[in-house]
């Protein structure tokens, strides 16, 4: 009876984790459509992402302080991990991705960044000896094929060697996000890790802008979307609150429930969410091939889930 009850709790935790992870993916996925409106209105990508991270960091500042009262020693104890999270999982991922799309097609850059789940699987295999199951490998292949179709890169997209290196850097940053977010041994609440990490990321992006690595330009003109025109601060707040602050908190929480491997594959749903919000906000309707790709991505996630090893009733969290 005890084993059955424990198994029920584990299944319940995984079920909730999947819902939270999908919420995170859809929150992250809306950022591109909101940001595209800002960019069309005269913002550079660097300015848009820096504003996004600053808004999120400021929104989470008070909740972070409240959750850390009496536990400030945890920041000192986990200083190395927090710095790595802020600089790699936030700053590097954003900065390297925008450097990549400056010299190569967006589809190729996205495809390389979204190979992060494969990097997570390889890391767990090399670091912990967790060899992926046959189903996990099959699911990864299915999801990868789906991404190729969804990102429409088979129509003569140009490839740049330097851009590939930048995109690989973004992939490493994304993989770092999943691996570090899965750690439950730090004692840091998800909202605190997100808040401190985003603050460090905002400082890193601002520094990159000040030294000229990340071009910065913005406009206070109204921003046009499919549903109408809104003041500039509406998309900025939407990106900061919904697509960053909420997304990072949900992402960290779900990764601790599911483990970095499964969470990284569920996060591929972000591509589907990006297409959905692209249609809703910008009127960009995906074609039939892209829709087929979306179905394959979700099928790949399901196969990866079926291939997850059960560990005697323990939740699928992956400490590193």
Q: Could you characterize what this model shows?
A:
With about 325 residues, the protein is mostly helical. It has one domain. Helices cover about 75% and strands about 0% of the residues. Strands 1-2 form a two-stranded antiparallel ribbon. Helix 5 crosses helix 10 and helix 8 packs antiparallel against helix 14. It is globular and about 50 Å long. It starts with a helix and ends in a 14-residue tail after the last helix.
Provide a brief overview of the structure:
With about 325 residues, the chain is mostly helical.
Mean pLDDT: 79
Strand order of the largest sheet: 1-2
Oligomer: single chain
Q: Which structural category do the helix and sheet elements fall into? A: mainly alpha
Q: How many beta-strand segments?
A: 2
Query: How many strands, which pairing sense, and closed or not: the largest β-sheet?
Result: 2 strands, antiparallel
Order of helices and strands: HHHHHHHHHHEEHHHH
- Would you identify the regions where 5 or more consecutive residues have pLDDT less than 50? 3-7, 310-320
Fraction in beta strands: under 5%
In angstroms, what is the radius of gyration? 19 Å
How far from one another are the termini?
31 Å
Task: List the keywords.
single chain, about 325 residues, mainly alpha, two-stranded antiparallel ribbon, 2 strands, globular, disordered N terminus, disordered C terminus
Secondary structure blueprint with pairings:
Layout: H1 2-29, H2 31-40, H3 45-67, H4 73-77, H5 79-101, H6 106-113, H7 116-128, H8 134-151, H9 161-181, H10 190-210, E1 223-225, E2 228-230, H11 233-258, H12 260-266, H13 269-282, H14 288-306
Antiparallel strand pairs: 1-2
Helix pairs in contact: 1-11, 1-13, 2-11, 2-13, 3-10, 3-11, 5-9, 5-10, 6-8, 6-9, 7-9, 7-12, 8-14, 9-11, 9-12, 10-11, 11-12
């Amino acid at each position: 009876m005890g084993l059955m009850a424990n198994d029920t709790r584990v299944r319940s935790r995984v079920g909730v984790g999947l819902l939270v992870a999908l919420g995170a993916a859809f929150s992250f996925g809306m950022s591109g459509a909101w940001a595209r409106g800002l960019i069309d209105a005269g913002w550079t990508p660097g300015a848009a992402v820096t504003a996004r991270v600053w808004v999120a960091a400021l929104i989470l500042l008070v909740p972070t302080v409240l959750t850390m009262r009496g536990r400030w020693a945890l920041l000192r104890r986990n200083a190395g991990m927090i710095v790595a999270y802020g600089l790699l999982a936030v700053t590097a991922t954003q900065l390297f991705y925008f450097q990549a799309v400056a010299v190569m097609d967006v589809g190729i850059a996205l495809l390389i960044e979204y190979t992060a789940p494969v990097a997570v699987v390889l890391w767990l295999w090399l670091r912990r000896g967790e060899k992926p199951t046959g189903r996990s490998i099959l699911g990864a292949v299915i999801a990868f094929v789906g991404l190729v179709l969804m990102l429409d890169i088979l129509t003569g997209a140009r490839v740049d060697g330097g851009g590939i290196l930048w995109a690989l850097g973004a992939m490493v940053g994304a993989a770092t996000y999943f691996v570090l977010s899965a750690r439950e041994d730090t004692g840091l609440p998800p909202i605190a890790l997100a808040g401190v990490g985003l603050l460090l990321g905002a400082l890193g992006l601002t520094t990159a802008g000040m030294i000229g690595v990340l071009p910065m330009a913005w406009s206070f003109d109204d921003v046009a979307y499919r549903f109408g025109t809104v003041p500039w601060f509406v998309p900025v707040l939407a990106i900061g609150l919904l697509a960053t602050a909420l997304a990072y908190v949900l992402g960290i929480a779900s990764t601790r429930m599911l483990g970095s491997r499964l969470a990284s594959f569920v996060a591929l749903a972000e591509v589907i969410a990006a297409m959905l919000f692209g249609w809703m906000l910008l009127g960009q309707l995906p074609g039939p091939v892209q829709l087929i790709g979306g179905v394959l991505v979700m099928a790949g996630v399901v196969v990866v889930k079926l291939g997850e090893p059960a560990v005697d009733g323990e939740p699928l969290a992956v400490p590193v």
